[in-house]
Amino acid sequence: xxxxxxxxxxxxxxxxxxxxxxxxxxxxxxxxxxxxxxxxxxxxxxxxxxxxxxxxxxxxxxxxxxxxxxxxxxxxxxxxxxxxxxxxxxxxxxxxxxxxxxxxxxxxxxxxxxxxxxxxxxxxxxxxxxxxxxxxxxxxxxxxxxxxxxxxxxxxxxxxxxxxxxxxxxxxxxxxxxxxxxxxxxxxxxx
Length: 191
Description:
Order of helices and strands: HHHHHHHHH
Shape: elongated
CATH superfamily of the largest domain: Winged helix-like DNA-binding domain superfamily/Winged helix DNA-binding domain
Helix content: 55-70%
Strand content: under 5%
CATH class of the largest domain: Mainly Alpha
Mean pLDDT: 82
Radius of gyration: 21 Å
């Protein structure tokens, strides 16, 4: 079924078209939800809520831009609203140090590193993780993030800066990246 046929079917509330749309986009959108969610169950709830909104709002898609981008925006906004509704921005920072990442042996080193980085991002406190996802991955500006999360633009910037610092610390701790220690010894010249 073509994307246009799916859209037309969804506009007519055709269950087969809705199933096709869900089957086509849900795997990618679940990945988006998982980046924001506290756990897999929350991610699945976000996905379901998002697709309900998509089906209810599909008539607002004006064929400007890419349909997948429109779907993604609805999913991201659904994730943000889910987090706000469930007050998930207050996860304590101490959870970072108690988490353990299971490292699997992979034949391709870069795949292993990518998985480890994603897992380290998931260890960030919810506020840090959300701002990092919105800014670095989704491409929203700090102004837009501030509006979405109902925070100041400067708060978004500082959360992003802190998120990067904590993420770097986690990546170093897990030996995913290497940061050489700065030599602090003084060398006596001429004796």
